[in-house]
Amino acid sequence: MKYLFKKFICALLCTSIFACSACSLNSQSDSISETEPSATQSIVDETTQAVKLSTDDQPATYNLSKLKENTDKVTQQFDDFITNKKYKGVVYNKIGGDFEYISQKGLSVVEDHKSNSVNTQYYVGSLTKQFTAVAIMKLVEENKLSLDDKIDKYFENYEYGEKITVKNLLTMTSGIPSYTCYYGSIDNNYYNFDQIGFSLEEDNEEHNKKAILDWILKQELRFEPDSRFAFSDSNYFLLGKIIEKVSEKSYEEYITENIFEPLGMKSSVFDNAENLAIGYDGSDNYKWLYYDGVGYSSSGLITSVSDFLKWIYAFDEYKIISKESVDEMCTPYLENYGYGFFVYQDRIVQTAGFDKYSAMLEFTRSESEIFVSVSNYNYNDPVHLFAMFRVFLKPYYG
Predict the structure, then answer these.
(1) What is the number of structural domains in the chain?
(2) For residue 116, what are the domain limits?
(3) CA 295 to CA 124: how far, in whole Å?
(4) Which of 148, 198, 196, 144 shows the shortest CA–CA distance to 170?
(5) Quick one: which of 40, 50, 90, 174 is 20 to 30 A from 336 by CA?
(6) CA distances from 331 to 48, 352, 364 (A)
(7) What is the CATH number of the domain that holds 304?
(8) Is 2 inside a domain boundary?
(9) What single string gives the DSSP state of each residue in 159-183?
(10) Position 1 in a domain
(11) What's the rounded mean pLDDT across residues 348-373?
């Protein structure tokens, strides 16, 4: 299964000409690697390549007056590329205060001839993690927990609880294997239903959460905590449980009451989405990912582009947590990972592949650039899309 970063190749041919190619097609392997962590590095390298296309790893700056003069040209380039690639979903790109691009293509529900729009709800997979991280930081600010807490404080009798801190979970440095995909696979070769090591039931959220938690706490560590980075959904699943223990509310209730409702994010839910885009062009081998309780605090969020824009502005304007907490979240730890997303200079980046759905969020701390892309069609690749948009914008870099 894809994680959107499989075989991404970008080459600079001369000072202003790029040739880019990307492939994020599904690629299920029958073998499970227990010893190869190298695929973890690939997501970092490929994410860095996509971001460097626009900035050469420098803070994002644009010649805004020149870009404004050529708005029609750039918009046409974007439109043509999306049309040629048959990209189905919603794409939003904002540069400064004068350039704004929106594309709404394809159908959210084919049977009803219902079109995708900025208000359509999508599964956004790992983009959930930044909300979980903010919730943790809010509880830290309220002195209800510490990032230095050993997690045996929250999970008694856990064999490795004295070694792992809350911060290790946030930064993906715990060594705990992921409950969703093969070890060492950051392009998300998800387990199919027959390969998962725990028993799940449809429409049984509490059972599923318990089954996954029990599985996580029985796993051997893949490496010593804080010695290495490895993307693992298990880390953020445990953070959700910690939020529940500390707040005495369900994770979903806490996020809704402390983030969604204050920000007016009315399209953001964890179940019962009324305007959900149906996922297309995938198999049924991974339908367990949609079972109640499975995505949870790691990948369970359903939201819209319009809500994500509310979230970006609120995050950068410190409406939920303080500037100090946001700064800490945006300080890269191992392999450019902060708390809930990757960090490159002034840019926040996270992508997601969730069975038939895909998403990418990229924005600068100054809000000078925002890129959001969501799709309900398998084989659509927002990383490739983002990279090509940077190619078209290259003549306008300051």
Answers:
(1) 1
(2) 8-396
(3) 10
(4) 148
(5) 90
(6) 16, 21, 13
(7) 3.40.710.10
(8) no
(9) TTTTT-BHHHHHTT-S-PPPSSB-T
(10) no
(11) 92
Which tokens sit at 298? 């790691």
Asked if residue 266 is part of any domain, the answer here is: yes
Question: Given a cut of 60, is residue 176 above it in pLDDT?
Answer: yes
Nearest CA to 53 out of 17, 83, 1, 81 is that of: 17
Does 4 have pLDDT greater than 50? no
Q: Is residue 255 part of a domain?
A: yes
> Which 8-state DSSP code applies to residue 393?
H
| pTM recorded for the entire structure | 0.87
Amino acid at site 359: A
Q: Is 125 left (phi over 0), alpha (psi -120 to 50) or beta?
A: left
What contacts 149, CB < 8 A, 6 or more positions away? 165, 166
What are the tokens at 385?
């899309």
Residues shown for the chain: 398
Coil, strand or helix at 152: helix
Q: Specify the amino acid at residue 319.
A: K
Residue located via tokens 């200079």: 345
Contacts of 301 (CB under 8 A, 6+ apart): 123, 124, 125, 127, 128, 131, 268, 270, 295
Distance of CA 386 to the CA centre of its chain: 15
Tell me the two tokens of residue 25. 């097609």
User: What type of residue sits at position 331?
Assistant: T
